[in-house]
């Protein structure tokens, strides 16, 4: 009887002991990744080169070509088995000479406003244009106003909701006026559109960002104005009619060929299964694209760097993809998706970093509903390894580029940093290297490397 009880005890205790040893081994390895990130990673130096030497990287520009060459050269130093450039057709919009927006007639008199033309904006007549301004909070108000907008300037002034703790949710609930407002105004005869910059701050920083015109839409000048100037313009409109002068010199040229930059380390056991890490290499033509999304690109390259430095031999193929033209059409993400289909690549998971280089808080995860449901328990089982570093999982979107893979079945992740200050810099002249803290940047790289390690070691069964 005692012998039988002893055998039962062994059967229960030995597996638990093995699991505990495995968990300890994983914990020590993740700590090693963090130590390497904080002491040896070159990701901040790479970001310095990308922002200071290359600079702003609008898709189709000479600077974007320089960024492609720069990052591919880095990938070739990281022990990759192969690297290549994947062609994609990208937008080719140019801002031209600096834009001018000025209150020309109001109770206050004349005053210049801080403004940036939106991506895909049209050009004004060379001498500029002047028209009366009509303010809207919601796009539905525009439709009700109808053709009375003919010959006027539409002004979209819905602020990001400061009460939302998740600033990306606040951004998402306000971005429709920038993306779709100018085109809808143009259909009712508006000669230009002004949009309140998307930030929770009240300041003088104008924000750019894409706006979308349909093939049949008149392409009018469309500009973001600073939140302080938007408040000023709104207060003046309450006192009486306001006319604004607008001058832009934008050009939309035919699409051109550019490239995604890809480097990979082949898996030793399951090379046909791919885990992607990535960010988007392009940026707007103002600032330096440091947070958006130079940070995500160098963090993704650092995942390969850290795992190599740690002596890790991946079971699956680890692939870093630096996507082109996310800002003006997600064209790099679409090209990668199309290649995935044509080449029958089998993606286990994909992780995107495109929310800035601030302190990491965890990961959002997304995918087909059945995939998310099936893998939720696996993710929960990893929390004990990740929570000591302040990391958690929550359901939510992954990223515009890897999101293109959603229908193909992989589990998708987005690195989620503390984003309370992200929209202070997003799409502005102030998105520069000095806005990125080196330690926070490296912590984000370590977080991504840790998740890749767990995905690669254990898979998603």
**How large is the count of helical segments?**
14
Tally the beta strands: 16
Spatial strand arrangement across the major sheet: 1-10-12-11-13-16-14-15
How many strands, which pairing sense, and closed or not: the largest β-sheet?
A: 8 strands, mixed
Overall helicity: 25-40%
Helix/strand-derived category reads alpha/beta
What would the average pLDDT be, to the nearest integer? 95
Separation, N- and C-terminal Cα atoms: 39 Å
How much strand?
Answer: 15-25%
The SSE order reads HHHEEEEEHEHHHEEHEEEHEHEEHHEEHH
- What general outline do the C-alpha atoms trace? elongated
Parts with pLDDT < 50 across at least 5 consecutive residues: 5-14
Write down the Rg: 25 Å
What does this structure look like?
By secondary structure, the chain is an alpha/beta fold. Helix content is 38%, strand content 24%. The strands form two sheets. Strands 1-10-12-11-13-16-14-15 form an eight-stranded mixed sheet, with helices on both faces. An eight-stranded mixed sheet has the order 3-2-9-5-6-7-8-4, sandwiched between helices. α2 (43-54) runs antiparallel to α3, α2 runs antiparallel to α9 (290-309) and α9 (290-309) crosses α14. The radius of gyration is 25 Å and the shape is elongated. The protein starts with a helix and ends with a helix.
């Amino acid at each position: 009887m005692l012998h039988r009880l002893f055998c039962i005890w062994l059967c229960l205790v030995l597996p638990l002991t093995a699991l505990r040893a495995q968990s300890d081994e994983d914990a020590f390895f993740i700590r090693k990744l963090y130590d390497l990130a904080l002491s040896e990673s070159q990701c901040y130096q790479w970001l310095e080169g990308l922002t200071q030497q290359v600079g702003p990287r609008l898709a189709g520009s000479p600077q974007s070509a320089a960024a492609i060459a720069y990052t591919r050269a880095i990938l070739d130093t990281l022990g990759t088995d192969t690297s290549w450039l994947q062609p994609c057709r990208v937008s080719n919009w140019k801002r031209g000479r600096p834009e001018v927006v000025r209150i020309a007639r109001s109770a206050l008199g004349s005053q210049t406003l801080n403004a940036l033309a939106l991506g895909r904006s049209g050009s004004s007549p060379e001498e500029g244009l002047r028209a009366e301004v009509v303010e809207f909070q919601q796009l539905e108000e525009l439709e009700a106003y109808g053709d009375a907008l003919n010959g006027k300037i539409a002004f979209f002034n819905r602020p990001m909701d400061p009460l939302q703790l998740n600033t990306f949710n606040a951004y998402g609930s306000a971005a429709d006026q920038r993306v779709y407002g100018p085109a809808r105004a143009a259909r009712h005869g508006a000669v230009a559109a002004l949009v309140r910059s998307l930030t929770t701050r009240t300041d003088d920083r104008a924000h750019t960002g894409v706006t979308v015109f349909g093939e049949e839409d008149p392409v009018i000048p469309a500009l973001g104005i600073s939140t302080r100037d938007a408040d000023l313009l709104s207060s003046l409109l309450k006192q009486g009619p306001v006319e604004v002068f607008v001058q832009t010199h934008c050009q939309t040229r035919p699409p051109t060929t550019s490239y995604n930059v890809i480097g990979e380390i082949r898996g030793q056991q399951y090379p046909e299964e791919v885990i992607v890490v990535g960010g988007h290499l392009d940026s707007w033509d103002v600032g330096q694209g440091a947070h958006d999304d130079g940070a995500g690109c160098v963090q993704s390259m650092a995942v390969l760097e850290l795992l190599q430095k740690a002596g890790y031999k991946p079971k699956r193929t680890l692939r870093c993809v630096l996507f082109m033209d996310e800002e003006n059409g997600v064209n790099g993400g679409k090209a990668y998706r199309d290649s995935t289909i044509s080449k029958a690549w089998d993606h286990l998971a994909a992780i995107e970093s495109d929310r800035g280089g601030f302190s990491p808080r965890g990961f959002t995860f997304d995918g087909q509903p059945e995939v998310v449901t099936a893998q939720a328990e696996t993710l929960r089982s990893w929390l004990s390894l990740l929570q000591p570093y302040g990391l958690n999982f929550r359901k939510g979107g992954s990223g515009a580029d890897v999101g293109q893979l959603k229908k193909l079945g992989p589990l998708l992740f987005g690195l989620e940093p503390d984003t309370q200050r992200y929209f202070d810099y997003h799409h502005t002249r102030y998105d520069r290297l000095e806005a990125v803290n080196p330690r926070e940047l490296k912590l984000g790289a370590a977080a991504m490397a840790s998740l890749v390690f767990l995905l690669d070691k254990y898979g998603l069964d």
